[in-house]
Design goal:
- The chain is built from three helices and no strands.
- Helix content is about 85%, strand content about 0%.
- With about 80 residues, the protein is mainly α.
- It has a domain of about 55 residues.
């Protein structure tokens, strides 16, 4: 029974991961993570082996926050027009 178990475990973990990725991140969560990464960069506490990954994640979060702000601005402008 050793063989099938790892496959089942991996399938279960993959399902959990997919569910987590589908959950929409709030602006506040993204902004908080982004500011944490920026603090790490300023303090130079990120190991060199993780630096490019953290910068990439910061860019993703920055894009997400910018898009959320633009979407919210457009929605508010539409409400004001009504």
């Amino acid at each position: 029974m050793k063989g099938p178990l790892p496959g089942r475990v991996m399938a279960c973990l993959f399902t959990i991961y997919e569910q987590m990725m589908k959950r929409e991140t709030t602006y506040e969560e993204a902004y908080s993570e982004l500011t944490g990464i920026l603090k790490e960069l300023e303090d130079e506490t990120i190991p060199i082996d993780k630096l490019s990954g953290r910068v990439k994640r910061a860019m993703e979060l920055n894009r997400y926050c910018r898009e959320r702000l633009l979407l919210t601005e457009a929605e508010i402008n539409e409400l004001i027009k009504e």
